[in-house]
Amino acid sequence: MPQKFSNLVKLYGFGILKNGVKFDFPFKESLLSMEPIAEKVYFALGDSEDTTNAEFEKFPFVKIINTTWDKSLKDGKVISVETNKALQFLKSDLSPAEIKSGWGLYLQADEVIHEDDYAVLKKDIEYCEQNGFDTISFRYLHFWHTHHHIAVTKNWYPHEIRIIKLDSMVESWGDGQSFQNQKKVFYSDARIYHYGHVREQSAYEQKMRFQSSFHHADHLVEEKLKKDAENSKKHKTNYYYGTHPLVMKNRIIRMNDIWELPMAPAVAIVGNPKKYSPKLLKHIAAVEVKWFASLGEVPEALKETTVLTEPTILDYFLKRAVPNLKMRSKHALPWNDDFKLIMQLSSKQIGFHHD
Prior knowledge:
This protein is an alpha/beta fold. The chain folds into two domains: 10-197, Spore Coat Polysaccharide Biosynthesis Protein SpsA, Chain A; 260-346, no CATH class. It is built from eleven helices and 15 strands. The strands form four sheets. It has an eight-stranded mixed beta sheet with strand order 3-2-1-4-8-6-11-5. It has a three-stranded parallel beta sheet with strand order 14-13-15, with no helix packed on it. The longest helix is centred in the first third of the chain and has 16 residues, at 77-92. The relative contact order is 0.13.
């Protein structure tokens, strides 16, 4: 388990939730992913109709404030209102000195952090503290109906602010997707694993109807749900067989989804292995991983599972490589080399395994 931050920088978690059990939110996994790096976690719990509050009481590192959601607020504004309640609750529990050195990690209850990114976050926050940044934006993996399909259509946000400096005017706004009043944003390679669209089907349908009711007038909810269902058929996805946060293992297995792909006999990779982290290469789920300088060197028996790390236009034309593995949003930043390789191998149904 990683160490908490130094005395000069401390991280505190916060978030909101209502009806987490009823709507099958992975909130327990979200909380557990914050525990190793956060001093404390603060949650505003709405007036739920289920056992959500009782479940939260099982987590001793979480402080709870009970709230009532304002049903009259539309356009999703109730989410930012509740988020700011949680943020103020957090600040009210800290001393001026703790606020000055503190940073707040906001996770929605269907968002989880991967343990591989703890070291990245620690380094990024300490860098931001020393260089005048007041917010940190994460990259997003939006899982679509399974734990192995990432939505990449242009309307999916590729990154979003999830860490804020507490000694600032930064606050949640709009439908709670992001924050405002920031002065300097740092773009991290740390990832948010967003599981909002992967859950038990009846709970998913209830959750979507509930969520829609906070965005639209009552008489428009059913019409909007039908439109969303039609639009959802147009979502483009890419395969993802990289690892998931370890805290998600039991949930993924419970949902009868694949935790890890079985080991492939062999995979050929055309590229330079020195570009990638040794840890990533160690966890490729193949009995044998062979590297080649060019496609011409690859034996015919391995051509089907060959991954081209730097494909050309001709490679795409000849279907030797899968195009558009990145997110389609014009705001999307390039992935680092490690993640590009994860997506390239995933497109060939080659996965990764945990230690």
